[in-house]
Specification:
The structure is a single chain. The protein has 278 residues and is an alpha/beta fold. It is 39% helix and 23% strand. Strand 9 and strand 10 form a beta hairpin. The radius of gyration is 20 Å and the shape is globular.
């Protein structure tokens, strides 16, 4: 089921700088979608359209097949369903403490203090930062700021979570922890959409992929198929994921049968490398 969709979206920044050029994108409920492309391709601009922060010059965004509206009430309802987490957490964190920051959205929904507190506790627990509730936001580490910003979106209980480069700036361990948290959010019913230029993160985590170039989606489909299409990946300025290339090498050496899946994570790749070669 298509939950959120962009049809023919065009947008230019002041001065006529083009950002989106007739872009089409489909987001299926319950599928993790990676939007892949080089820096400057317009991925962030797309996310800002998908939650109504920006309005297209032409084209439209659809929620459950119906055009989304831009009146105050319609935008409020839209953003309850579609949450956005920016790449730089400092752009979203503004309150004195983590708990105050996370409570901002629920309180703006008109919830009572007790209901808002329940949402805050739930979000902090989901992001595994309950111990940081009273911590001043300016005293958080980079990774903690990322989690706090996501918790603020989670507290709104959105159906779709849009994340701009969620693992950018995190070390390998921090990125793995964050992806594990996002996986748990998905299990609770949140559809995940994230932008990245890291093809290896997308290969390991996404169900579907959309390749981005010059403000357009040039291809969209299952990540396991699309991300091994060298022609399409090259067209988007991207390289085939390392684990996929390792898998192809193992097939050539006889350690991986043609009908066996390519490795999608480090553990499966190491298991395959332990097999005897032909």
């Amino acid at each position: 089921m298509i939950l959120l969709e962009a049809r023919g979206i065009t947008y230019a920044y002041p001065g006529g700088v083009p950002a989106l050029a007739g872009l089409d994108l489909r987001i299926a409920r319950g599928r993790r979608l990676a939007i892949l492309g080089p820096n400057g391709a317009g991925k962030t601009t797309l996310l800002l359209h998908l939650n109504g922060t920006l309005r297209p010059a032409s084209g439209r965004v659809l929620l459950d097949g119906r055009p989304a509206g831009y009146s105050r009430n319609e935008l409020s309802a839209w953003r309850r369903r579609v949450g956005l987490v920016l790449q730089d957490a400092d752009d979203q964190l503004f309150a004195a403490s983590v708990a105050e920051d996370v409570s901002f959205g629920p309180l703006n929904l008109g919830l009572s203090d007790s209901e808002a507190r329940e949402r805050v506790d739930e979000a902090l627990a989901a992001l595994q930062i309950a111990d940081l509730a009273d911590r001043p936001t300016h005293m958080l580490s980079f990774g903690q700021k990322k989690r706090a910003a996501i918790a603020g979106a989670v507290a709104m209980r959105p159906e779709v979570m849009l994340l701009d480069e969620p693992t950018a700036g995190l070390d390998r361990h921090g990125a793995a922890l964050l992806l594990a948290v996002l996986e748990r959010l998905e299990a609770s019913g949140t559809t995940l959409v994230f932008t990245t230029h890291d093809v290896d993160v997308a290969w390991a985590f996404a169900h579907d992929a959309a390749l981005f170039k010059d403000g357009r989606v040039i291809a969209q489909g299952p990540a396991s198929d699309l991300m091994i299409d060298e022609v399409r990946m090259r067209e988007a300025g991207l390289q085939t994921p390392l684990l996929a290339r390792i898998g192809f090498a193992l097939r050539a050496n006889g350690a991986l049968a043609a009908d066996e899946a390519l490795p999608s994570d480090e553990a499966s790749a190491l298991d395959l490398l332990s097999r005897p070669f032909r």
